[in-house]
Amino acid sequence: MHFGLEGKTVLVLASGSGLGKAVAGEFLKEGADVVLAGRGAEKLERAAADLHGVTGNTPRFQQCDITKAEELHRLVCFAAEKHGSVDVLVNNAGGPPAGTFEMFDDGAWTGAFELTLLSYVRAIREVLPYMKQRDWGRIVNSTSSSVREAIENLILSNTFRLGVIGLTKSLASEFAPYGILVNAIGPGRFDTERIRSLDRSLAEKKGLSIEEVSRASLSRIPMGRYGDPEEYGRLAVFLGSEANTYITGQTILADGGMTRAVP
Predict the structure, then answer these.
(1) How confident is the model at residue 54 (pLDDT cuts 50, 70, 90)?
(2) Beta strands in the chain (DSSP E)
(3) I want to staple 4 with a disulfide (CB 3.0 to 4.6 A). Which of 76, 162, 242, 245 is the partner?
(4) pTM, two decimal places
């Protein structure tokens, strides 16, 4: 399959580690010009070196707190100045803290909103002029399998991830005349530090060992394993490429069959 990503500029948010880094790596393998973004400059530098070692291609990177509008503006300007435009945006963010409703005050709710929803809105607003100018663009919004089935102990994520789906659906209709396709991916349990952190939090809440929590999670996944982040990256590449010409406004779960809910 030809993805047509050579020479395309791909901006991947929160890509210093985890799923974001894996997504960036898969785009690099396809010859795209990739820009990494995240809060820690040293972490981004290490990620860029790691990805060069794996793919043979070197991404650029820019430090950015995605909850800050001015930093997102500078990030998109950086990507466009270095590569001429932004063709593909992969919205991604570390998840908000785990916990139940009574654990969080207004500050926690506001912070989760800015991290998991408003950052996506702002990033899309920044890249839209570049995509409209070329009558082509791809936006991939990373969410969670919780958009189909709420996850225990994740009240903040359960709430705001659904907002991303509403955004995705609305923008798919608004942006289609400009050749811009907008989709979302809902990851299940992938082998990342985020999942390990959630397992620790749930283990503490229930008074169980991490091993017991992990075994219970694996028992609910028909494929019997956690996902490899590269598997997630390959799905993002398809949705963000010229190979995808007619899929927009959709949410695709990558969860090994874990989610039983019917859309």
Answers:
(1) very high
(2) 9-12, 33-38, 60-63, 88-91, 137-142, 180-187, 251-254
(3) 242
(4) 0.94
